[in-house]
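3.2 Worked example (two chains)
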Amino acid sequence: MADSENCGRVTRLAKKRAAEGMAPQEQRRASKKRVVLGEIQNFSIVGVKQIKGVEGKIQKPKSKKKVKRVVASKTVEEKEVSVVVVDDDDVDDPQMCTAYVSDIYDYLRKMEIDEKRRPLPDYLEKVQKDVSATMRGILVDWLVEVSEEYKLLSDTLYLTVSYLDRFLSTNVITRQKLQLLGVSSMLIAAKYEEISPPHVEDFCYITDNTYTKEEVVKMEADVLNSLQFEMGNPTVKTFLRRFTGIAQEEYKTPNLQLEFLGYYLSELGLLDYCCVKFLPSLVAASVIFLSRFTLQPNAHPWSAALQRYSGYKASDLKECVLILHDLQLSRRGGSLVAVRDKYKQHKFKCVSTLTSLVEIPASFFEDTRQL
């Protein structure tokens, strides 16, 4: 009996010592509570206003009052200070990347001027022999319909046109192959941007099987090799997102009409060959200029914040703004209706039905005006 009690005591002591000797990692694993995905809270990243106190604790902001902050960064080449206006709401949003947003956009501005990522401004005159600006416009207009049919992101459409122009800048093709180039470029862009891109067979079908699957895949390979697999270009949409936020600072609530009008005008710009020569950031700035003029024709459309952040003065935008204005008034590309029909929908606030003044005052393009 005594031996039995001693044996039990030894067993209990062994278990106790084993528990005390458990590795810290195993102890944490044993005490860690499993949490289902729906129970995980969306904790925000510590922002500028959440500073550490004397005792090392994180102090939360006392109020949600908006305070504009300035983030300054100096570019390497121009040695100029670029100023980004950031709201406290943005500080707590991890997607806004407020800590290094200036560096990101400085990098994008350098990338957009990279020659290997830019189409030739006059490739139709210098390279192509059987393709005209009208044919290009008809193709892009049709690609807008394709993107709507397959519910593709607008980013996919912008990249498609970028690949198209870059390929045509270095490769001569016949007009019979132009549509094949369009669908192959959209196939590449969809693979780059979409979660579930359309299949090759879908693009064959949308052309009424004018081209075979093998032809589409062959053209896809030709485009990729021609572009040297440089797929990640900044587009007008890249800069338009940021410029729209700056333009809406004066509004208490987001102005969806301004946002959709900007998208509409920028897609109209895709149709016109004359816009190929402009940098994406300049087109985005011109779109904001014209959008604000359309909604408030009596107010100056360019603000100090927009000029400071975009890096463009009103005079820099004049040529591009006037081309976009002609497109908006159907004085250019009036027969291309896909973009206009797309933005007649209520989900886009019917912005393509908005009218603009026939003339933009010349004073709006003068830099001598104190903004």
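3.2.1 Second chain
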Amino acid sequence: MVGKLREVSSKVNKAELKLFLEVIPALEQCSVLPFGEREGDILLFFKLYHPKKEELRYVGNLFVNCTGKPIEIVRNINELAGFDPDEQIELYEFENGDIICFQRQLQPHCKTKSCRMGEETI
């Protein structure tokens, strides 16, 4: 399959094919099941933004109910990032809704770039 994708990619774009592979730990180590269990579950990918470093990095994915509300998965998102379960975060939709970017909630006085780049702990 990879060979076929590489062949098509090379013909069309004259570019190198890049594959993304995520290894799922054993089920007993997972706090969230890796596969959607219910009808209407969708797969979302999460990227964490660090304002001070101006860095965006992938932290994981979750199957969520397509009619659910963001507040229902905040604890799971915080777990992916290594934050406390009740950490206040800001969510942003990216790339047609399947990639969600998030960051720790900025303090009201820290909305400007110069403030984010300062010594504030974010």
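3.3 Remarks
Strands lie at 41-50, 55-65, 89-94, 99-104.
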